[in-house]
Amino acid sequence: MIISTTHTLEGRPIREYLGLVTGEVIVGANIFKDLFAGIRDIVGGRAGAYEGALRDARRQAYEELQYEAERIGADAVIGVDLDYEVVGGQGSMLMVSVTGTAVRL
Question: Residues 57-82: pLDDT tens digits?
Fold first, then answer.
């Protein structure tokens, strides 16, 4: 499965546009990660726990996007856009959404 932020794929003509596909993941912020991140922010280090959670959420969102595209018979997803939003009371959750156009090559 080809996943691309571009709207065309060089040397690969698009035969059919199958529609919009998405992958969405919402992750909650764990109190221990919050505490650890706060301490790391004080000493100027990187918040590795958050970076790992963000990386996992992004990977899951892309997997969901690919699953949706495969389900409708796509060979590729083009024009992919990745967004992050803070949701929930007091910004307690992070939503990662990936959207693109499923196509047949």
Answer: 999 999 999 999 999 999 999 999 99
Q: How many CB atoms lie within 10 A of CB 26?
A: 14
Alpha-carbon distance 67 to 50, whole Å? Answer: 26
List, as one string, the DSSP characters of 2-36: EE-SSSSBTTB---EEEEEEEEEEEEEPPHHHHHH
CB 79 within 8 Å of CB 2: no
Tokens of 21: 């596909």
Whole-angstrom Cα distance, residue 50 to residue 89?
18
Whole-prediction pTM value? 0.79
